[in-house]
């Protein structure tokens, strides 16, 4: 199974634009042959819109399924809060997100850490509640520096904080994303080499093994995120279980080409 996750961030500000996006995306899918349609059953296409569009996307996915039944569209939120309900103005709980029909939630994104000062321990609380509510965390592991040898310890500590008091079996319901901040288009947007992606993921794997010595890492999924586009998606897919895509997921033609790169 490959995971293609579209993180729309704070884009698409009206429903007409969203309808247009899916109309154009469907036009692309209708051009592909049966052999490729079969292969697409092995790809999960997860879209993470702003909270207010979750319900609208759920309906659109149903319409797409009726027409193109080989496609697996799934819904993700971009964040959640660590309590189920209560006096937390402006927050959205993982319980409400689950109840609206989401299967996933992005947690620990570096834009939230940078702009909203979200800490690893807040992320920890969110993971606990999300898993409790049967949501799969799409968990971002970020590094600021390009030189990985300087970040190994930081990655380990980040994961240790993320998984404080969390049992090993929750990891099988977590999708790990290696997301160097310097590669994200909203920051520096520098291109990350395949080698750097492989090394980043291997540091994450080593850190997980240090925290959970008995874990079978082959059961876990590791994605890459940071300036992925149609030109580099195929390469990254060779060394990962999928991609987290920001900017290039906003253009239906480009997004389609990235999905095609899984085939
Ligand atoms: P980008 O974003 O593809 O625009 O670099 C990736 C991410 O932040 O999820």
Strand content: 15-25%
Q: Give the beta-strand count.
A: 8
Which strand order spans the largest sheet, edge to edge or round the barrel?
A: 1-2-3-4-5-6-7-8
How far the N terminus sits from the C terminus, by CA atoms, comes to 11 Å
Task: Note the main sheet.
Answer: 8 strands, parallel, barrel
- Gyration radius from CA atoms, angstroms: 18 Å
Helix content: 40-55%
The low-confidence parts are: none
What does the overall shape look like? globular
Structural class: alpha/beta
Bound molecules: 2-phosphoglycolic acid
Overall residue-averaged pLDDT value: 96
Helical stretch count?
A: 10
SSE arrangement, N to C: EHHEHEHEHHEHEHEHEH
Can you describe what's shown?
The chain has 263 residues and is an alpha/beta fold. Helices cover 40% and strands 17% of the residues. The chain contains ten helices and eight strands. Strands 1-2-3-4-5-6-7-8 form an eight-stranded parallel beta barrel, surrounded by five helices. Strand 3, helix 4 and strand 4 form a beta-alpha-beta unit. It is globular, with a radius of gyration of 18 Å. The termini are close together. The site of 2-phosphoglycolic acid (PGA) has 12 residues, from strand 8.
